[in-house]
Structures are given as C-alpha cells and as structure tokens.
Amino acid sequence: MNVRKFHTGYYDANSYLVNGKVLIDTGINTDALITEIEENIDINDLELIILTHCHYDHSAAAEAIARKSGALIVIHKDDVELLHHDKASAAEAFDSRAPSFEPDVLLSGGENIPIGDGEHLQVIHTPGHTPGGICLYEPISKSLFSGDTVFPQGSIGRTDFMGGNSAKISESIQKLTELDVRTMYPGHGEATSDNVKRQIELSYHMAKSISKTI
C-alpha cells in the first residue's frame, strides 16, 4: 500500500493519500492541500474522500477537492447531522461556519472499500470522539487509519465535544485491540510502527480509567 501524508497547517488534521486514488481526511487549508495532491497525482484520478469524522479540521476542504477532482465524499451516517452544525463540527472553534456539502456515500460500519492492488479498507465504526467516528483497517499491510479515536503512545481522542462519549470510546478502542496492526496512521501527529498493538492497548486502559471517573 502506498501512503502519502499531507499536513498543511498547524491546526490541520493529517490527510493521507492512499494508492493514488483515496484521500482520508482533508484538513482546512484547501489550496495548500490541492497543491500537495497535484504534486503527487493527477487530481482527476482521485476517486474517494473518506472522512474519519465530522470535525472541521478533518472535513473543511472536502467540498472543494471533490468539486475539482470529481471524487465522492464518504462519511458515517451518524456524523452527517453534526457535520452541518457549527458547534458540533467544531467549526466555531476555528471562527468558521460548518460545511454545507452533502456527502455522496453514507457508511454504517462493516463495509469493505476497494483501494486497488487487491487491497481494501475495512470500515470500523468507532464512536466516542464523535457518534459517527470511524477507523479504517487494511489487512494486507496491517495498516490502521485511526482518525481521532487513538493516537500513538497510548493517547485517545477527546470526548468533551458535542456528541462525545467516554464510555463509547472505551468500547471502540477495545475493538481496535483485537486487530493485528503493523502501522498506525493517526489523525494528528506522526505515524508509528513501534509495537502498535501495545500502544493501542495502552490507549484502551487510559480510556477505561477515564470512563470510570466520569
């Protein structure tokens, strides 16, 4: 699997270009991200823009990139309403308005998304950071795109935003502990291949301890 990471601004989430045809998350800085994409592929080859969740720092540039490339925008069905809400999308935190675009494909969890070269992304519904948060797992390369559900070194996504739930993120991370992960590509920070399963287990223990205190 070929993965290119783009990070175009301090407050932006990571964007990942996978196999030259799928973009996972988009960040905020539309023009900078389009430039990065076009330096790597013909943007018309982009087929899907998959949003791991509705927050503005992951979704703001999606509409413009979809319009330029013709790619379809994909998100979990439980995050659509929040996507269009200024506070729930965290757009207010960036002094902006929530995106107004309508996603093309709504996920429920459990789907397999082909990405070429015989590979596919398994959609894992991981509520907790948001109701419709997802992670994406590619079993051949054992890669996990973890959005804002888990981060390296045992960190977890915040649950104090609208729609967040500490008990649910604990349950979601427990599902991730069952995966054989070689490389984790988080929504923020650097990718890691250092005993990732153990890092996810540490995230699960942190999530459990937090949920017990709330």
- What would the CATH topology be? Metallo-beta-lactamase, Chain A
Residue-averaged pLDDT: 96
SSE ordering: EEEHEHHEHEEEEEEEHEH
pLDDT < 50 runs, ≥5 residues: none
Termini Cα gap: 40 Å
Portion of residues in beta strands equals 15-25%
Number of strands: 13
Described by its quaternary structure, the protein is single chain
- Largest beta-sheet characterization: 6 strands, mixed
Radius of gyration: 16 Å
CATH superfamily name? Ribonuclease Z/Hydroxyacylglutathione hydrolase-like
Specify the CATH architecture.
4-Layer Sandwich
Q: How many discrete domains? A: 1
- Helix/strand-derived category reads alpha/beta
Helicity, as a percent range: 25-40%
**Morphology:** globular
Helix count equals 6
Which sequence of strands runs across the widest sheet?
1-2-3-4-5-6
CATH classification, class level? Alpha Beta
Structure explained in plain terms:
The protein has 214 residues and is of the alpha/beta class. The protein has one domain: Metallo-beta-lactamase, Chain A, CATH 3.60.15. It has 6 helices and 13 strands. Helix 5 packs antiparallel against helix 6. It is globular.
Question: Could you list some keywords that capture this structure?
Answer:
five-stranded mixed sheet; 13 strands; globular; alpha/beta; Metallo-beta-lactamase, Chain A; six-stranded mixed sheet; 214 residues; 24% strand
